[in-house]
C-alpha cells in the first residue's frame, strides 16, 4: 500500500523514489513486523491470559513441562498479523506471487486456528479431527498449487532444479501440482511437529525464511539469476518483502516465546509458517534446498514416522519419546540446551543451502 503512496509522492519530490528499491522495502517490512510484534505481543498475552486460553500438557511427557500448563497459546495469530501487515504495507500488491503466498499462509493459519480453538476454548481435547485437518490442508495445498501452475508464465516456473548441477532442469508438467502439494503440506506439518519447546520452531523458521528471501531476491533479478546459475522467475523478487516480514515477525514473537515462554504459537502459527516456507521455496524453485535448510524439521518428522512405524511393526520404540526433541530431554538434556543446539544445526544447514547459490 505504501509503495503506491511513495510512487505518487515521487512525482512531487524525487527523493521518495528510494522506496522503489526492493532491498529498502524488505528492510522496512522486517522492522514493521518486528514493531507490531513488540507492541501487540503484551496485549495479546494479557487477553489470552484473561480468557484462560492456555496450554494443555501431556502427562506422559517430560516432567519439566508440567509447569508450562496454562501458558497462553495461539500466539501464532500475532505472527500472522505482523507478517500480513508488513507485507501488505511494503510489497507490490500487483504481484500475484505476493497474494498466493499470503492467502496460502492465512489459509493454513485458519486451519490451525480452528484446531486450537476447539482444544483451548471449546475444551475438545482431540481438536480438529485428523481427517478433517488433512482434508482442509489438502484443499489449501492444492489451491496454492493450481494457482501457481495456472499463472506460470515461463517454463522455469514448473521445472525441478537440482542444486549444484547448473543445467539440470526437469520439466514437471502437471506433476508440478503434486510436488507443490507435498512440499507445502509436508512443510506445514513438519514445522508443527517441531513446535514443542520454547522457541524451538520459530527461530529455525525465521532463519530458513530469511535465506529463502535471499533466493527470492536473486531469482527475481535476471542479472544475478544468470550469474548464479539459478532459475530466473520474473516477479519472485517481491517475496523478499514477505520473507523479511516473516523474519521480523518471528524475531518479535521469539522475544515472548524464548525460554521460559510467555506464550506459545499453537497450530495457528506452526501450520501457517510451514506452509509459507513451502510455497516460497516452490515459487523460487528451491524445494530441494528447503529440504536441506529445514533439516531440523525433516529430522523431527522422520523421528515421528520411525517411532510410529517401529511400534506398529515390532511393538518397540526407537526413541524414548517422539518427536526427537523430547527424546533428548528424557536423556537428561536441559530444554535450553536442546533448543540452542537445534538452532545451531539449522544455522549450519542454512549456510549449506546458501552455498548452493554459487556452487554450480
Largest sheet: 2 strands, antiparallel
Number of strands: 2
| Terminus-to-terminus distance | 38 Å
Task: Kindly provide the radius of gyration, computed on alpha-carbon positions and rounded to a whole number of angstroms.
Answer: 20 Å
Order of helix and strand elements from N to C terminus: HHHHHEEHHHHHHHHH
Spatial order of the strands forming the largest sheet:
1-2
Return the domain count.
1
**SS class:** mainly alpha
Strand content: under 5%
Q: What is the helical fraction, as a range of percent?
A: 55-70%
pLDDT < 50 runs, ≥5 residues: none
Number of distinct helices: 14
What characteristic shape results from the CA principal axes?
Answer: globular
Mean pLDDT: 91
Please outline what is shown here.
The protein has 360 residues and is mainly α.
What does this structure look like?
The protein has one domain. The chain starts with a helix and ends in a 5-residue tail after the last helix. It is globular and about 60 Å long. The protein has helices at 2-10, 22-50, 76-90, 96-122, 130-150, 175-194, 202-220, 222-228, 239-257, 266-283, 287-293, 295-314, 324-330, 335-355, and strands at 159-161, 169-171. A two-stranded antiparallel ribbon has the order 1-2. A hairpin with a 7-residue loop joins strand 1 (159-161) and strand 2. The chain has 14 helices and two strands. It is mainly α and 360 residues long. Helix 2 runs antiparallel to helix 3 and helix 3 runs antiparallel to helix 9 (239-257).
Amino acid at each position: 500500500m505504501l509503495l503506491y503512496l511513495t510512487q505518487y509522492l515521487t512525482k512531487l519530490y524525487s527523493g521518495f523514489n528510494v522506496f522503489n528499491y526492493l532491498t529498502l522495502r524488505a528492510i522496512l517490512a522486517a522492522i514493521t513486523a518486528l514493531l507490531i510484534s513488540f507492541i501487540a505481543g503484551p496485549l495479546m498475552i494479557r487477553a489470552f491470559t484473561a480468557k484462560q486460553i492456555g496450554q494443555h500438557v501431556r502427562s506422559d511427557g517430560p516432567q519439566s513441562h508440567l509447569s508450562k500448563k496454562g501458558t497462553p497459546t495461539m500466539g501464532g495469530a500475532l505472527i500472522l498479523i505482523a507478517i500480513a501487515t508488513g507485507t501488505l504495507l511494503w510489497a507490490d500488491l500487483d504481484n500475484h506471487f505476493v497474494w498466493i503466498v499470503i492467502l496460502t499462509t492465512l489459509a493454513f493459519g485458519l486451519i490451525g486456528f480452528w484446531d486450537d480453538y476447539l482444544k483451548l476454548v471449546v475444551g475438545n481435547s482431540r481438536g480438529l479431527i485428523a481427517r478433517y485437518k488433512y482434508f482442509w490442508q489438502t484443499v489449501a495445498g492444492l489451491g496454492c498449487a493450481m494457482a501457481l501452475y495456472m499463472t506460470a508464465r515461463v517454463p522455469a516456473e514448473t521445472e525441478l532444479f537440482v542444486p549444484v548441477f547448473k543445467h539440470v532442469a526437469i520439466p514437471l508438467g502437471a506433476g508440478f501440482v503434486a510436488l507443490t502439494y507435498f512440499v507445502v503440506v509436508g512443510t506445514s506439518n513438519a514445522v508443527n511437529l517441531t513446535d514443542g519447546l520454547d522457541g524451538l520452531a520459530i527461530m529455525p523458521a525465521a532463519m530458513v525464511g530469511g535465506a529463502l528471501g535471499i533466493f527470492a531476491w536473486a531469482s527475481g533479478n535476471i542479472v544475478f539469476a544468470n550469474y548464479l546459475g539459478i532459475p530466473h522467475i520474473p516477479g519472485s523478487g517481491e517475496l523478499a518483502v514477505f520473507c523479511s516480514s516473516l523474519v521480523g515477525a518471528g524475531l518479535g514473537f521469539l522475544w515472548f516465546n524464548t525460554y521460559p515462554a510467555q506464550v506459545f504459537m499453537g497450530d495457528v502459527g506452526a501450520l501457517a509458517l510451514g506452509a509459507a516456507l513451502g510455497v516460497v521455496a516452490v515459487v523460487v524453485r528451491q524445494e530441494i534446498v528447503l529440504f536441506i535448510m529445514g533439516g531440523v524439521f525433516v529430522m523431527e518428522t522422520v523421528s515421528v514416522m520411525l517411532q510410529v512405524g517401529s511400534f506398529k511393526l515390532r511393538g518397540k520404540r526407537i526413541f524414548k519419546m517422539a518427536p526427537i526433541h523430547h527424546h533428548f530431554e528424557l536423556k537428561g538434556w536441559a530444554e535450553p540446551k536442546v533448543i540452542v543446539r537445534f538452532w545451531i544445526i539449522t544455522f549450519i544447514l542454512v549456510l549449506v543451502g546458501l552455498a548452493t547459490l554459487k556452487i554450480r
